[in-house]
Amino acid sequence: MTISGHSRAFLLMISLVGLAGVTAAQKEDLGVISAAPALRAEGLIIARCSVCHSADLIAQQRLPRARWEATVEKMEHWGAEISNDEADLLVRYLSARYHPGAPDQLPPLDSEFRKAEPLAQEPVAEGPLTGVAARGAGIFEHNCQACHGAMAIGGMGPKLVKTPILKHEELFLEMVLHGRGAMPAWSSVLSPQDIADIHAWLVTR
């Protein structure tokens, strides 16, 4: 074998070792996201990212962590309302699930986690929730305003001020928690108390 042949063989070996290391790191990375944070990350994708583009666009990507970090930073620069903790969670989740070694077709998220780690059920509050309008205003601004407009007067999503559904608090809760039509489910982002607070604020408008 010539010197150049030895060099090529050496480079190929180094590349394979490096690839094996990346793959092992990715597999290890998948273990750092447990069920509850992963579902919250999915909720954040719906709440923060789907305002501008479909969640399918994200699911089609297969990027290394550095590229996901750059993508989340770009989202923040373009106005995505995410905290530092939320940005960190998104980067960890996206780089664990949609890394370059991930298969083209991924199973649904809940089927991946449900067998290994059943989600703990939160205790159900007894009796109706009492919404706090002052708190609801901030929750609406952070989560709902991008679609339903400032002060809930409408935008990409429908106007919510003085809509008939506000007269049916339980129906409003179910719709926000589980979604309906073009409205995605928010159960992984907003708690029933959060939704009660939003409802309390909307009925004062």
H and E string: HHHHHHHHHH
Mean pLDDT: 76
* Total number of domains: 2
What is the rounded distance between the termini? 81 Å
Describe this structure in words.
There is one protein chain. It is built from 10 helices and no strands. The longest helix has 28 residues, at 3-30. The protein folds into 2 domains: 28-114, no CATH class; 133-202, Cytochrome c-like domain (Cytochrome Bc1 Complex, Chain D, domain 2, Orthogonal Bundle), CATH 1.10.760.10. It has 205 residues and is an all-alpha fold. Residues 9-30 and 113-125 have low confidence and may be disordered. The chain is elongated. It starts with a helix and ends with a helix. Helix 2 (35-49) crosses helix 5 and helix 7 (133-143) packs across helix 10. Helices cover 57% and strands 0% of the residues.
Task: Name a few traits of the molecule.
single chain, 205 residues, mainly alpha, Cytochrome Bc1 Complex, Chain D, domain 2, 2 domains, 0% strand
Give a short synopsis of this structure.
With 205 residues, the chain is mainly α. It has 10 helices and no strands.
